[in-house]
Amino acid sequence: MLSPRLAFLLRRLGRLAVSLAVVVVATFLIVHLVPGDPVRAALGPSATPELVAATRAELGLDQPLLQQFTDYVAGLLRGDFGVSIRTQRPVGETIAQRFPSTLTLAVLAFVVTVVGALPIGVAAAISARSGRHGVVDGVVSSVLGMLIAIPSFLLAVGMIAVFSVSLGLLPVAGWGDPQHLVLPVLTLALGPMAYLARIVQVEMFTVLDSTYMTTARSKRLPARLVYLRHALPNIVTASLTVGGLILSGLTAATVLVEMVFAIPGLGEVTVAAVGGKDYPMIQGVVLVYALTVLGVNLVVDLILITVDPRSSIAEG
Question: What's the structural domain count of the chain?
Answer without folding.
Answer: 1
